[in-house]
Write the structure tokens for this entry.
Amino acid sequence: MSDAQATRRSELPGRYDRGLLLAALGLAGLGLVMVASSSIPVADNQHVGPFYYVTRHLIFLALGLGLAITAMRIELETVERHSGVVLLAGFALLLAVFVPGIGMRINGALRWIHLGISGFQPVEAFKLLLILYLASYLVRHRESVQRNFFGVIKPIGVAGIGVALLLVQPDFGSAALIGATTVGLIWLGGARLRNLVFLGLPIMPVMAYAAMFAEYRLKRLTSFRDPFLDPFGDGYQLAQALIAVGRGEWLGVGLGGSVQKLFYLPEAHTDFILAVIGEELGLLGIVLVLALFAWFCGRGLLIGARAVQRGLYFQGYVAFGVSLCIALQALVSIGVNLGVLPTKGLTLPLISSGGSSVMMTCAMIGVLLRVSYELSREEAQSAETTQARVQAGVWA
């Protein structure tokens, strides 16, 4: 028993979850291939060289790998202690877009900050920073969240401030994603469903008003029901996406054989990359994407559940939050491409081209892998303690 007590948890060997890592690598590999396939005609038309977007994607993947490795080496206990600073950093990033000379207005939206050689979308970092804060809050106020109505008001309010800043930019898609992730995480943290429903009732009309306040959002809501009513107007983008998916049938027309990406389908290498996958790889390709995301997010939720069972509440809630965020974003992106949901400016994590999204998704994966490492270390300590007790009983 004394030997087990003398061994610190930080000194025990840990391991990163192999299944999680393989799923992430599968998504990144598929994304690299499809960005190459879908972006070459776009880059060629822009006269920046056929491999411009592929090269950028590789660079952002490399930067994301650096962020992931850094996150995998940081003790989550340290992050938990500084969760307040983490949250303030997230709000500072969201506010930076409104600072003249720092914020960048693109297509009428203030969603980027200028970093010299490239722009960065702060909301991508805010997602992770908010999850880290919410996980810390759920640990510190676990009983209040689980038992009292007022226990869930503060985390909802904190997320609400972020949502409000995003609506001002405007970025309705990210605002809805953050709201859904927050509610899901608090519910997994033990909050009563009725308390969340009571809080959600007054918020839903506000979100509905925000969705219909801008004319372009209202057109998206109406056109997605039948884009072929106006296939050359409001329904053009979705109509082209559905044509691409329909052309793919079961096995696709072959890698590189997409016709829709040749200037018919807007944002073929970013928001609508799944439509290109459907056209070139068919239903089989779409099922592969769904399976990889289901594997990755399911594995992440399982790791979170095991961590909570072991008493690693912060680690478990972080795993829940990261898994929910990636799963919901993937679900919305896939739904948009298949015409199930109105068009939103959300990329398909790890697959779509997009610097900020790629890098911060990699950082999220690094944090999730760190959770798996600390969980395996806790399990190793538990096994060592059990073995020491057995040996002590035998010698006694």
Remarks:
- The chain is about 70% helix and 5% strand.
- The radius of gyration is 23 Å.
- The chain has one domain: 2-395.
